[in-house]
Amino acid sequence: MPDKTPDITGIDTHAHIFSPDQPMAEGRRYTPDYTARLEDWLAHMADHGLSHGVLIQPSFLGTDNGLIAEAISQHPHHLRGVAVVDPEMSESALARLDAQGFVGARLNLVGRPLEAYDSAQWQRFFRRLADLGWQVEIQRAFEDFATIVPPIATSGVAVMIDHFGLPKGGIRPEDAAHRAVLEMLRAHPNAYVKLSAPYRSAQDDVAAHRSFEALREACGGVARFCWGSDWPHTQHETAVSYDDQMTRFAALVPDADDRARILITTPADLFRFSK
User: Fold this and answer.
1) What CA–CA distance (Å, rounded) separates 111 from 131?
2) Which one, of 227, 123, 145, lies nearest residue 191 by Cα?
3) pTM recorded for the entire structure
4) pLDDT (tens digit, 9 = 90+) per residue, 69-126?
5) 15: which strand partners?
6) 8 A C-beta contact, residue 163 and residue 137
């Protein structure tokens, strides 16, 4: 078995907490009508033997990351956060988030026009994140990652591709656009993939397995993978459960050493639980 960081039995790297009473971001694509409570997520993790977790700021809450900061303050050794931030935010504001336990910035680019991520403004932002040891977490349709990732990764910051990369119906290596993304992964070792929420790209078990095998071959193994539950599975709550996602992950990755690498070793380092 690979070496494990002491006291870490598993890390869920993708979950959300929120309340419909919070101020919502303008132009959001989704508005929740229920509360996703920290205590409920922690209970799910405990039931499945997971000790640590990462909270991802929902896009519909904009740049107010206060709820996650409060959660981390209650469990500083077991939780980390990925924030939604203004790329032009001050050094002091970014340092404050870092001190609060945030370890990354999220770019939810679904439905948004792509920008010139090789521009001086964006490169300055990415280098600031790299200097902090943060990552950039991106949600976007699979085909676009061949264009998006290279200018970001060359800045030196780690890049996390959310939800298998959202390949509609699964990754098809025979598709030229999909093949370009796989080639990009081979070329950029600081690009990671989160094995989470296959239902968001209409992947059944067969398609998810095909995607996993294609990604594993492109990444040269499983060392650049993390797992996330995507709890509370917004807009899929009636069809998906935490139990279901854990069961599907175990079936997707049957080898115990590979699961330990994905659940413990890689995320402990990437999300700074090992420091």
Assistant:
1) 29
2) 145
3) 0.96
4) 999 999 999 999 999 999 999 999 999 999 999 999 999 999 889 999 999 999 999 9
5) 55, 231
6) no
Those residues whose C-beta lies under 8 Å from the C-beta of residue 28, and which sit 6 or more positions away, are 59, 60
pLDDT tens digits for 194-204? Answer: 999 999 999 99
Enumerate long-range contacts of 2-6, CB under 8 Å, 24 or more apart.
Answer: 2/257, 2/260, 2/261, 2/264, 2/265, 3/265, 4/260, 4/264, 4/265, 4/268, 5/264, 5/265, 5/268, 5/273, 5/274
Q: Which of 242, 214, 208 is nearest to 228 (CA)?
A: 242
Spacing of C-alpha 120 from chain mean position: 25
| Per-residue pLDDT tens digits for 213-245 | 999 999 999 999 999 999 999 999 999 999 999
What is residue 7's DSSP assignment? T
